[in-house]
Amino acid sequence: MKKITNGSSNRFKNVLFLIFATVFSNAVFAINGEKYAMNLPKGVTEFSNTVYGLHMIVLWICIIIGVLVFGAMFYSIFAHRKSKGVKAAQFTHSTTAEIIWTVIPILILVVIAFPATEALIKMEAPSDADGNRVEMEMTVKVTGYQWKWKYDYLGEDVSFMSSLSEKSNEARQLNSNIDPESVENYLLDVDKPLVIPVNTNIRILLTSNDVIHSWWVPSFGWKRDAIPGYVNEAWTNVPEVGIYRGQCAELCGKDHGFMPVVVEVKSKADYAIWLTEQKELAAKAKDKDNIEWTKEDLMSQGKKVYNSSCATCHQASGKGLPPAFPALDGNELVNAAMEEQIKTVVFGREGTAMSAFGSMLSDSDIAAAITYTRNSWSNTVKDTVQPADIKKVKE
Amino acid sequence: MSHATTMDHEHDHDHKPKGFVKRWLMTTNHKDIGTLYLIFALAMFILGGALAMIIRLELFQPGLQFVNPDFFNQLTTMHALIMVFGAVMPAFVGFANWMIPIMIGAPDMALPRMNNWSFWILPFAFTMLISTFFMESGAPAAGWTLYPPLVLQGGDNIAFAVFAIHMLGISSIMGAINVIATIMNMRAPNMGYLKMPLFVWTWLITAFLLIAVMPVFAGAVTMLLTDAYFGTTFFNAAGGGDPVLFQHVFWFFGHPEVYIMILPSFGIISEIIPTFARKPLFGYVSMVYASAAIAFLSFIVWAHHMFSVGMPLGGELYFMYATMLISIPTGVKVFNWVSTMWKGAMTFETPMLWALAFVILFTIGGFSGLMMALAPVDFQYHDTYFIVAHFHYVLVTGAVFAIIAGVYYWIPKWTGNMYSERLGKIHFWWSAISVNVLFFPQHFLGLAGMPRRIPDYSTQFAEFNMMSSIGGFAFGLAQVFFIYIVYRTIKGKGTTKATDRVWEGAKGLEWFIPSPAPHHTFQDGEPVKDEHLAHVSNH
Predict the structure, then answer these.
(1) Interacting residues of A346 by C-beta distance below 8 A, sequence separation 6+
(2) Angle of helix B462-491 relative to helix B421-448, nearest 10 degrees?
(3) Do residues B299 and B252 lie in contact, with contact meaning Cβ atoms separated by under 8 Å?
(4) So where are chain B's domains?
(5) pLDDT reported for residue A384
(6) B51-85 burial: b if 16+ Cβ within 10 Å, else e
(7) How many CB atoms lie within 10 A of CB B147?
């Protein structure tokens, strides 16, 4: 077995203590630090607080019923045992008792059903105090990709990908020898978070480019699936500035555990500044698609793009993870004429995990990444792929 | 039952076929087939458990230490498929084969040759399924729910998984037909429907569920197959199909499937508690109706597995209300078990300990089930470790505990030897404690935000994962100990001979034939005597 790191051996002791505490004295309920979070977080939105309240109501109902039923059972176990010399009664039923324990649970369910229905309506058909439907002030489209998220600010011409931060990504490799404890927000950090303004009704549309994903920020109180061919709708209104973290919740392939959701909530003023910056960046990126690049620039930009978008599957070494993820080093397609390779990258390959990158990356980034693969490792095609070549294939 | 005893003595040792092939491969004897099913289930339980051990090993601490993420997904997928279709379901068919004919006074199952076939399909189906581990594509890695489009990325393992599922379906359907035909046609004279043991009743209902839903599952996976190989696009949005359709069809099978795995457990527990409380089962008739009600409800609640898929408000409300209703008949069952104990004269032999643990721990699983029935809260619980905790409470401390309870309860009848009470109790306490260390912290993990089916996790989840893994290793080891206990009992090592009645308070036909049960029982169609029965209905 692998050597347990220092942090882990301390944890091992703590856990052993926890087990003893739980088994013998239930003392675990006394511990309530962040490390030992045991309950649903209240979250930050009105909806998540509603959900938390509902959760606590049902939890307490279950605990009370549990105490009564198990209490009766344990009483019976202690009192009605043969070793105490009792003689077994022989009754077989009691209509009164059976009616009582059918009717009372039905009443309890009815009582729970009211707040549950109310909460559901709050999510699915939100309306204000006067019964008017809540107006959405902005819309963000969330698209799931294997294994990252794309955020489109509808009507703003701003869109970007959001994937696992580099530090977490290095540490999470098999036998990386990097202690996860040393990485801040391990597996819950991204290169570029979704940024939204505070106190704003935000419609969130969800869809997917490949398989089903599920977008979840526990602090907002809900998760919703991102399904190819569907556009799902949800909404939120975050009343507090801050950073909120979550994860993909629907199994979506090998790196399902490595596509966090991070949302940064800014004040309205800061958000406006951020949005202007993003628009400028987007305009600059467009310019990049319209120029002829030098091979050096393509190679250096290509390496960056390759490592962030391609290396998860095809590996930084280009050796891939066959058979699911083929090697690009020495790959026939990569070493042939560029058209087929561009098509594969732009449109993806059906029935495999190869996504259509045409909608994820800019033309210049695709051109750079392809140039990089054609001129790295043992591949020596020597040509350069320009943004214009990508545009041509797209058309 | 005097005639059975007489027959046993008259015909020397009930002419069992000689030789391994004739005795086991070609057997049409319900007891031998039952034994085969149980041994097969035990083997699969160990294999599925071994996969779970690797899962818990990888989750022992944050970071990836042992397996890569794709193999991890193969492990979770195959663990579930093997446990559901290889361990729990065959174990219950094994119990059905052994006990149903004896309990209703029938000489054998109604369709003995089909019975043989039902069993012998299984080893081949599982060989095919497990062989995918050694293929280039690896084993299926999209979860046991096999959701497209992800499952279609798995290469050729999908074909093997689909054909294996077809074979398992055929096996289950034939087994179910056999159970229904046996119960409806082969009850001994004077064995009315409302005199049948509850185990027989729950299995009758389970058999109807199987016949209703296994073809649905077969249809769903066949559509996967044609999508993968024949150019159809049932589940591909780009071709006009619908990935969510699969989920609806799958869970129309999948929800009744979970009751297929729990109803026979209810039956076993309802046999054991009255025996050791020395008191008739409380509310026999309401138990039967509650089982039927649960089965009926299981068909109309499937989409509660899909609250986060995005349904119209009306749909979500309907599935929420319908799901909440299930707690009513389930509650009736729990209340009836407790009332059966009430004012009894209880003793606590090993089967009773497992049954009591079942009642408590299954109920905890039921509580979390009620919690997640509430759609808005399920938006938080869905696809987290809270769900993992929930279904392991109902399937491990529910179904598996009931199976183990049933083995301890009937193994003296099967083998003629008493198991070691001391070892049985050690096994119980060891398992009962470790299983809670294993699964209870998973509630906390899920609530704190850990998604299920991830090979690595953020450091805030480290403590409870390590705790869960420690519980897992201990629980796994306890089941190896269980095999040792069973082996000793079969071989009669350090055990005593079982009496015919075995348990002081036992009622039902199986306790009025010799131990071990003779190879052939009840051949003369003599009416059963009311005094041998647990339930002589006067309704």
Answers:
(1) A356, A357, A358, A366, A390, A393, A394
(2) 160
(3) yes
(4) 32-530
(5) 86
(6) bbbebbbbbbbbbbbbbbbbbbbbbbbbbbbbbbb
(7) 23
Predicted confidence at residue A34, as pLDDT, reads 52
Omega of the bond leading into A101 within 30 degrees of 0 (cis): no
The C-alpha R_g of chain B, in whole angstroms, comes to: 23
Counted residue by residue, chain B has a size of 539
CA–CA distance from B392 to each of A112, B49, B385 (Å)? 25, 13, 10
Task: List chain A domain ranges.
Answer: 2-81+93-124, 138-287, 290-394
- The CA–CA distances, whole Å, from B334 to A170, A273, B295 equal 51, 61, 16
- Restricting to B residues 332-371, those with a Cβ less than 8 Å away from any Cβ of A are 332, 334-335, 338-339, 341-348, 356, 359-360, 363-364, 367-368, 370-371
**Residue B388 in contact with residue B465, Cβ under 8 Å?**
no
Q: Name the catalytic one among B333, B382, B390, B392.
A: B333
10 Å CB burial of residue A296 (0-12, 13-18, 19+) is exposed
Main-chain dihedrals φ then ψ at residue A319, nearest 5 degrees: -85, -10
Strands across the sheet containing A260-266: A194-197, A260-266, A242-248, A213-217, A222-226
Give Cβ neighbours of residue A73 (< 8 Å, ≥ 6 apart).
Answer: B338, B341, B356, B359, B360
CB distance B149 to B236 below 8 Å = yes
- Is B468 one of the annotated active-site residues of the chain? no
Kindly report the nearest CA distance between residue B99 and chain A, in angstroms.
24
For residue A14, the distance in angstroms to the closest alpha carbon of chain B comes to: 8
CA distance A292 to B82: 57
Chosen from B153, B235, B378 to mutate, greatest number of chain A CBs within 10 A: B153
- Chain A segment 180-199 residues within 8 A of B by beta carbon are 180-181, 185-188
Q: Are strands A138-145 and A202-208 parallel, antiparallel or unpaired?
A: parallel
Model pLDDT, residue B537: 61
Secondary structure, 3-state, A44-94: CCHHHHHHHHHHHHHHHHHHHHHHHHHHHHHHHHHHCEHHHCCCCCCCCCC
Asked if B346's CB is within 8 angstroms of A76's CB, the reply is yes
> What is the CATH code for B32-530?
1.20.210.10
B79 is catalytic: yes
Strands (DSSP E) found in A168-309: 194-197, 202-208, 213-217, 222-226, 232-236, 242-248, 260-266
Number of Cα atoms under 13 Å in the Cβ half of residue A239: 7
Q: What is the pTM of this model?
A: 0.90
Q: CATH says A138-287 is which class?
A: mainly beta
> What average pLDDT values come out for chain B (539 residues) when binned by 10 residues?
44 70 90 96 97 97 93 96 97 97 94 96 96 92 94 91 96 97 94 94 97 96 95 92 96 96 97 95 94 95 95 94 95 95 95 97 96 96 96 97 97 95 96 96 95 94 94 97 96 88 93 92 85 75
* Backbone dihedral angles phi then psi of residue A133, each to the nearest 5 degrees: -65, 135
Residue A256, Cβ neighbours under 10 Å: how many?
A: 28
Considering only CB atoms, which chain B residues are within 8 Å of A321? 68, 70
Decide: A210 and A146 in contact? Cβ < 8 Å.
yes
Q: Which ranges of chain A have pLDDT less than 50?
A: 1-4, 25-33
B77 among known catalytic residues: no
Active site residue B463: no
Shortest CA gap A334–chain B (Å): 22
The CATH class, in words, for A290-394 is mainly alpha
Q: Name the active-site residue from B24, B120, B259, B302.
A: B259
Among partner residues A69, A88, A223, which is closest to B277 by beta-carbon distance? A88
